[in-house]
Task: inverse folding
């Protein structure tokens, strides 16, 4: 039966192909879920940093620089998605001008929060890059495996620890 | 926190990665965390209580040397079982890109995975060739740590990702508290005496021992009582030292960790004349912790550790005349040595293991938060 070989070949091809597509689809879902989760973690670290900056500013009332810092911290907390990067950069710039004393509790809290923002952002960036890379693969585009997920975006701010 | 650490190399073979993992694990345990280290080892081998054996390691040629690694279905099953039983909050693998337990662990875990890269792999073409495979491994890693600026640069340039630089730690108290060897360092005053130390593979050109030997050939005839305390694996007979150095050299051979600390406490000056190939300079932080004034080549890595030359003297790479001058000046100038040591003590406190472990914990916490879950095994473990 010469046809039998063909049937087995086609079935094997379909099975292997389907498993591969399933694997890739799982990978797409997983990477998007992880990028989204890292985004939420970054968000909460940014909020904590702004809060720590506000506490630092409140410790020196009447000082014009502290007033600026407090305003920048508020602006960072209130910012919407499209102006958030600029607001966070403003806050970073003002914090850099402050002589942060890591030996005081308020200063140490801001320094630690800045480090955690840097870590959270780096992890977010890596995961977004992974998700974007997998979105760009021909098979993913052809089968529109990414259609369930909005395109993840980098959060592009200056590194607060530099 | 429940922490699972994977060591790719046998714990009974001495090596930088193994010492790093041992010190990190012990520091984390002393801070109150639960740590389990999975490492290649025989089941009947005596191991520290926190190490879980993953079976005998097989010697595999890798990256120009022989690495003892575990790989294959049996090891994979053990990794899965360890992950399942450990129920870790975070998984920390070391050198995950080599075919090893680390790679197996990354591939069988979901959730917060932190990876530390020790070596600076620079063969970018080899990396590019397997980029697609690497991508599958790398995208499972949440947080990357590089132990040196060089290792970090490899991450950024070749592996397309960021990494936070956290240096190798050093057990400062262990070095600072070591007893000097009996009768050392001896007398040291203007124009006479003094002990210079060198530790490492003196036959390897990159370690720069011949730069030091040339400097000493110039100095010793003019400085009575100047001695060399030398330690490291190798045979002194291979060196062909001039008589003037040979008769004033004390050779300790290959030293244990404890004797290394004692040796570093026994010198007036520690010299690191390396001509290249150092990505971090572990020996410098050890010498600094032991309170030995340091003279080192002006390599980028050394300059960074020595705080731009304030925590130790720097000399131009390969320049034995300049090294001789620096050694002579420093041996004559006790207050200057004291000032270097004082600054070095401050600098090295930033490399103390508890400080370094605190920074590693910060990465763990960020990874856990970024994942929003703890570590899960990818599939239920098979029962053996």
Result:
């Amino acid at each position: 039966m010469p046809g039998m070989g063909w049937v087995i070949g086609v079935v094997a091809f379909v099975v292997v192909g389907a498993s591969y597509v399933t694997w890739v689809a799982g990978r797409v879902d997983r990477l998007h879920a992880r990028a989204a989760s890292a985004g939420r973690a970054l968000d909460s670290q940014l909020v904590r940093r702004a809060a720590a900056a506000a506490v630092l500013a409140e410790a020196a009332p009447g000082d014009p620089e502290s007033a600026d810092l407090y305003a920048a911290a508020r602006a960072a907390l209130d910012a919407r998605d499209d102006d958030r990067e600029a607001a966070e950069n403003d806050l970073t710039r003002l914090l850099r001008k402050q002589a942060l004393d890591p030996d005081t509790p308020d200063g140490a809290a801001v320094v630690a929060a800045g480090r955690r923002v840097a870590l959270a952002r780096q992890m977010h960036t890596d995961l977004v890059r992974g998700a974007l890379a997998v979105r760009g693969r021909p098979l993913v585009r052809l089968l529109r495996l990414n259609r369930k997920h909005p395109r993840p975006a980098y959060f592009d701010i200056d590194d607060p620890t530099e | 926190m429940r922490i699972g650490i994977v060591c790719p190399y046998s714990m009974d073979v001495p090596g930088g990665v193994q010492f790093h993992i041992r010190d990190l694990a012990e520091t984390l345990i002393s801070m109150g965390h639960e740590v389990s280290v999975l490492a290649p080892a025989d089941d009947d081998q005596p191991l520290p209580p926190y190490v879980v054996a993953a079976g005998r390691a097989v010697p595999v040629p890798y990256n120009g040397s022989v690495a003892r690694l575990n790989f294959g279905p049996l090891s994979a099953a053990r990794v899965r079982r360890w992950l399942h039983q450990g129920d870790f909050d975070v998984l920390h693998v070391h050198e995950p890109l080599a075919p090893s337990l680390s790679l197996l662990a990354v591939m069988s875990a979901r959730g917060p995975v932190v990876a530390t890269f020790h070596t600076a792999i620079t063969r970018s073409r080899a990396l590019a060739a397997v980029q697609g495979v690497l991508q599958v491994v790398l995208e499972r890693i949440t947080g990357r740590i590089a132990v040196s600026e060089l290792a970090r640069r490899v991450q950024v340039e070749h592996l397309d990702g960021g990494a936070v630089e956290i240096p190798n730690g050093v057990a400062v108290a262990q070095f600072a508290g070591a007893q000097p060897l009996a009768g050392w360092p001896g007398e040291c005053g203007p124009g006479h005496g003094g002990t210079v130390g060198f530790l490492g593979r003196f036959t390897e050109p990159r370690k720069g021992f011949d730069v030091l030997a040339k400097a000493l050939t110039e100095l010793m005839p003019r400085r009575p009582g100047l001695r060399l305390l030398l330690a490291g694996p190798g045979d002194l007979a291979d060196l062909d030292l001039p008589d003037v150095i040979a008769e004033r050299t004390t050779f300790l051979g290959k030293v244990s960790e404890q004797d290394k600390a004692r040796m570093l406490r026994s010198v007036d000056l520690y010299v690191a004349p390396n001509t290249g190939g150092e990505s971090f300079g572990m020996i410098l932080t050890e010498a600094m912790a032991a309170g030995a004034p340091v003279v080192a080549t002006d390599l980028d890595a050394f300059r960074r550790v020595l705080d731009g030359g304030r925590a130790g003297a720097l000399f131009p790479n390969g320049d034995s005349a300049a090294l001789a001058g620096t050694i002579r000046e420093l041996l004559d100038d006790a207050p200057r040595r004291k000032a270097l040591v004082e600054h070095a003590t401050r600098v090295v406190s930033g490399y103390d293991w508890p400080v370094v472990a605190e920074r590693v914990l910060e990465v763990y916490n960020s990874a856990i938060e970024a994942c929003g879950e703890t570590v899960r095994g990818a599939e239920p473990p098979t029962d053996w």
Remarks:
- The mean pLDDT of chain B is 84.
- Residues 353-371 of chain B form the longest helix (19 residues).
